[in-house]
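Per your request, structure below.
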């Protein structure tokens, strides 16, 4: 009986194999499906309430319109917030703070240019808007740092089809991409030597 363990079963501090997420693939798939279903149902409900409000008159227009708008915004932001927090936690314990900061930054950038934000926040609107961009950039970089430390697969490329890219701790998704941390096998983390 051999006492040498295979590289994929060597546990790192924190009790997780090197190059693996903290959550199981099954949990990640289920959480993603549930969040997408919730997002679709809540946003569709908000759109329907908005359409009903447009067909009515009187005070119901404002009430239903505001409720519909709140459901659309909340139906997009809350599932994204939960997904970002779970995504950060899947990479490394405490990574959920990066997910929270990322979605908070996106919310600030998306919502602060509105007229309502100017009415509510006044002069604070501009610095909060730029703070949102700082959060997006800092938390995005933070995700890549914790992903690199945790040795999870990451791919970076421009959004257009034939763009070159590079991968860390995994194989490139397309030809022409540079693999910065080559692995002998796509599914196995690099063995310690």
């Amino acid at each position: 009986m051999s006492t040498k363990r295979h590289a994929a079963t060597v546990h790192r501090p924190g009790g997780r194999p090197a190059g693996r997420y903290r959550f199981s693939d099954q949990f990640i798939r289920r959480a993603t499906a549930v969040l997408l279903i919730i997002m679709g149902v809540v946003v569709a409900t908000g759109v329907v309430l908005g359409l009903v409000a447009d067909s009515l008159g009187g005070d119901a227009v404002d009430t239903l319109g505001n409720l519909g708008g709140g459901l659309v915004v909340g139906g997009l932001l809350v599932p994204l917030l939960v997904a970002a927090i779970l995504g950060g936690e899947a990479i490394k314990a405490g990574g959920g703070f990066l997910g929270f900061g990322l979605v908070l930054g996106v919310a600030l950038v998306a919502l602060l240019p509105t007229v309502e934000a100017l009415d509510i926040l006044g002069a604070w609107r501009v610095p909060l808007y730029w703070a949102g961009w700082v959060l997006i950039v800092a938390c995005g970089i933070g995700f890549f740092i914790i992903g690199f430390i945790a040795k999870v697969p990451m791919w970076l490329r421009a959004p257009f089809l034939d763009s070159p890219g590079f991968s860390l701790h995994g194989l490139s998704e397309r030809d022409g991409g540079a693999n910065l941390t080559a692995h002998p096998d796509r599914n196995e983390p690099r063995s310690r030597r």
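DSSP finds five helices and five strands in the chain.

Regards,
D.
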